[in-house]
Design brief:
The chain is mainly alpha-helical. The chain has 15 helices and eight strands. It has helices at 7-15, 18-26, 30-38, 42-50, 54-61, 66-75, 78-87, 90-99, 102-111, 114-123, 148-158, 183-188, 195-198, 212-222, 242-261; strands spanning 141-142, 167-171, 177-182, 206-207, 226-230, 236-241, 277-278, 289-290. It starts with 6 loop residues before the first helix and ends with a strand.
Length: 291
């Protein structure tokens, strides 16, 4: 918890001075704003969140506890919720949508672009406890016939929308994983060098059906920032990040401790919910959850 004195902000909230509130909050960094929000009532949390611009909203919500994220998202308009969901990490938004009341979830889903809806539905279909349930589709891909210059230009455009851009996965025309290439390799190479000449073909990977704890410990053991996730045909379907892997390991340790104590865990990590399937009903436009 930060040592910053929030008294002036508390006063602005009490007096309803929106202009002063906006000015004071704008001076804080996202993690500090999240700390502030965690100390407020639900109504005050929303008021602080609403004075932020969209970029800051996305940054701040990433630092909030899952229950607060959920509370704020439920209170926002469908249009604002949709804008926020579009910019959130792909795995996080699935977990949040999974916990929303069906009417709010359906409203948001109907307003999303088809590519966004398809991505959410795809990530929501994997069984809890598998690597697929914690992976993200938020990664960069390249093709072997692209030049280094073309690859850099592609990554430059896509970088704002991806969690990690230090390296990209290289796939063939059937989306089968054939290697990885680092940003450094692309930058220091000749502009017309082919990605196929720069990639590393010896790639550590995990299967989408692997237990999440197994995949997470592999990522930790290899000391990598992320691992590609493939299906049974070796096609790239996702990526697990270090943060998600560490969360999965922490949950596994917590559950083991509960089991040894002879009790059932009543608590799940606030940043992760059970990810069930959204089975879309095309005729009604509903996206109910099925277990």
């Amino acid at each position: 918890m930060t040592n910053i004195d929030f008294t002036p902000i508390f006063h602005a909230l009490e007096t309803g001075d929106k202009e002063q509130l906006t000015s004071l909050v704008s001076e804080l960094n996202p993690s500090t704003i999240a700390d502030l929000i965690s100390q407020l009532s639900d109504e005050q949390q929303l008021r602080v969140f609403l004075v932020l611009d969209m970029e800051d909203k996305v940054d701040v919500i990433a630092y909030l506890e899952f229950d607060i994220q959920l509370s704020i998202l439920q209170a926002l308009t469908v249009e604002m919720s949709k804008s926020l969901i579009e910019k959130m990490p792909h795995d996080t938004r699935v977990d949040l949508l999974n916990r929303l009341p069906s009417d709010k979830r359906n409203g948001i889903m109907r307003h999303l672009a088809k590519v966004e809806r398809d991505d959410i539905l795809k990530l929501s279909e994997f069984k809890e406890g598998t690597t697929g349930s914690i992976m993200t589709s938020d990664y960069a891909i390249l093709h072997p016939n692209q030049t280094a210059q073309q690859a850099i230009e592609k990554l430059r455009v896509e970088a704002p929308d991806h969690e990690m851009i230090y390296y990209a996965y290289v796939v063939d025309k059937d989306r089968k994983l054939i290697g990885t290439v680092s940003m450094r390799a692309l930058i220091v190479s000749e502009p017309d060098a082919k990605v196929s000449e720069l990639l590393t073909s010896d790639v550590e990977k995990v299967n989408v059906k692997d237990p999440e704890e197994q995949a997470s410990r592999k990522l930790k053991r290899l000391d990598l920032l992320a691992l590609p996730v493939v299906d049974d045909e070796d096609k790239l379907v996702g990526m697990i990040t270090f943060d998600d892997a560490m969360q999965a390991i922490e949950e596994d340790v917590s559950d083991t401790m509960y089991q040894k104590a002879g009790v059932m865990s009543r608590y799940k990590h606030p940043g992760k919910s059970t990810r069930c399937s959204f089975q879309q009903k095309a005729d009604t436009g509903e996206y109910p959850i099925s277990g």
